[in-house]
Amino acid sequence: MNEFVTVDFLDLILNSEAISPIIVVDENGIIIYFNKKILDIYGVASDENFIGKHLNNYINITKINEIQLNASKKFKFYIDVQGGKEISLDSIASKVIIKDKVYFILTIENVDKEIEQYDPLTGLYNRAYFKMKLKRIIKNSRNNRSKLAILIIKVKEFRKINERLGFQIGDKILQLIADSLKLHVKSKNIIARIGGSEFCIVLDNLEDYSEATVCASKIINASKKALLVDKLEVKYCIKIGISSFPDTSNDYHELIKHAYFVLQNLSNKEGYKFYSDEFKQNYHGKIDFENKLQNAIKNKELYLVYHPQVNLLNNKIIGLEALLRWDYAELKNINTEKLISIAEESELIGKINKYIIRKLEEDLNIIKKGVKDKKLTIAINFSPHLTELKRNLKEVSNLLTSINKKHENFNFQIELTESSFMEQEITAHEILKQFITEMKSNNIKLCVDDFGMEYSSIKRLLEQNFDVIKIHKSFIEMLQQKDNVTAIAIVRSIISLGNDLSFKVVAEGVEHLAQVNILKALGCHYAQGFYFYRPLSIDNLIKILQRDLT
């Protein structure tokens, strides 16, 4: 056994740039010193994990004197990486006597060889090891003529989580996500952390690629449940790009490239998708369409039509919903919903929102001349796409406020779809709340469009101080069916809720007299639909309004 008797020597070991990790314990087995390499193994920045703890937590012995009796023997040192992955490493003990006190120095061997394959935060394989392992799996799959798929999983807008909650919480979230991923794959499958908020799963020896779809679906469903981190409920969203071998990818680089291509081009409403030639073609078609839409905005080819809303007591027009249209030859007349959806998937939605407001102001000058003192509510279909809203919040708010002040004989109303605010992540919710506050301060009313189709939350409705509820047309369609008991109960409940909360309730999609009669009987006072009017051009609108005034 080696015995050292100088403090200088001990200091030299602990403070040097030693290649191997070193731990010093006293004669009772309590850890008192270590060098920086130990922290590197564990991926931590402080000594709180080690100082004052007993060696038994890390080494497979029951008594400290076993080291004395077996100094030349190698002991197994257990590394429990932060993600929960346990690794065993060899260590050798040496005895040190300083001022009549006995200490033991443990030198841990072959660390790099054993630990270099793991991500210290999650305990999953790291990117370098993943790359090597995947290349081997591809080679075996090629030799065995078997199928494999990779799933690249990205936590969306993770940077915002770090900014809002701090990196410590962010790290814990990544650890919980890593633990969740393990639940949805077999133990033989490879899971790796390949980027800051990116993970990859390799599914090999597949009978069918549908196994990858099932796995992705389970992961997406699990991500819908909020994580509990330090008593905080944190919502997060993920998206998954999937590529396959040998069907669409021939080697490691193609597998990675194709999965990332899907990941980067998924729509906001899609959780996962396979790479395919069709996906690639659709992407290029989408880019072409976006370019044409950009030119349409520039050339002022988009226009507004107006869908009247009526008072059911006298069928008089009490309001108009402004709807965006584009006469695009390849798709004929594209409706507002399609246009907004396309714009939201690109970076055009901010321009679309401002275009709608400016075009509305032009039209209002014409409408005002045609109907003069007619008091109307003007509802604007507005996209609350939050990235663009945050970027353009002040400009959009100023435009709407300006119109409101110039046209005092109109009451303005912003229509937001129910899904746009019911399931918002915290940061997004705050942006939307700021926008709503701006609108309310300028006497612009707010309407929940498509109410009942998504995740209706009374708490959110009250928080955002809405004024109007529009009952989704699917419920109105059901009123026409023979077996309409359930539909009547739902619509009655929505009308009753609106009335009790002092909301104005509008039924949309009314196409038949029978629906009108039921709505009247249920206490609904306002409606919109083809039974009364189709969306009108501005010229036809003025004629209808002038007739309605007489």
Tell me what you see in this structure.
This protein is α/β, with parallel strands linked by helices and 550 residues long. The protein has three domains: 113 residues, PAS domain (Beta-Lactamase, 2-Layer Sandwich), CATH 3.30.450.20; 149 residues, Reverse transcriptase/Diguanylate cyclase domain (Alpha-Beta Plaits); 193 residues, Alpha-Beta Barrel (TIM Barrel), CATH 3.20.20. The protein has 20 helices and 22 strands. An eight-stranded mixed β-barrel has the order 14-15-17-18-19-20-21-22, surrounded by four helices. Strands 1, 2, 3, 4, 5 and 6 form a six-stranded mixed beta sheet that branches. α16 links the parallel β19 and β20. The N terminus is likely disordered.
Provide mean pLDDT, rounded.
Answer: 79
What's the name of the CATH homologous superfamily of the largest domain? EAL domain
Which architecture of the largest domain would the CATH scheme give at its second level? Alpha-Beta Barrel
Overall structural class, as computed from helix and strand content, comes to alpha/beta
CATH class of the largest domain: Alpha Beta
pLDDT < 50 runs, ≥5 residues: 1-7, 422-427
Number of helices: 20
Q: How much beta, percentage-wise? A: 25-35%
Shape verdict: elongated
Query: How is the biggest beta sheet arranged?
Result: 8 strands, mixed, barrel
Question: What is the topological layout?
Answer:
Blueprint (H helix, E strand, L loop, with lengths): L2 E2 L2 H9 L6 E5 L4 E4 L1 H7 L22 H5 L4 E7 L5 E13 L2 E8 L2 H5 L11 H18 L2 E9 L2 H8 L1 H16 L7 E6 L2 E9 L3 H14 L3 E3 L2 E3 L3 E8 L6 H14 L6 E3 L2 H22 L3 E10 L5 E12 L3 E3 L1 H10 L3 H23 L4 E6 L4 H21 L3 E8 L1 H4 L3 H16 L3 E7 L6 H7 L3 E4 L1 H6 L6 H16 L3 E5 L4 H10 L3 E3 L9 H12 L1
Parallel strand pairs: 1-5, 12-13, 15-17, 17-18, 18-19, 19-20, 20-21, 21-22
Antiparallel strand pairs: 2-3, 2-6, 4-5, 5-6, 7-9, 7-12, 8-9, 10-11, 14-15, 14-22, 15-16
Helix pairs in contact: 6-7, 12-13, 12-20, 13-15
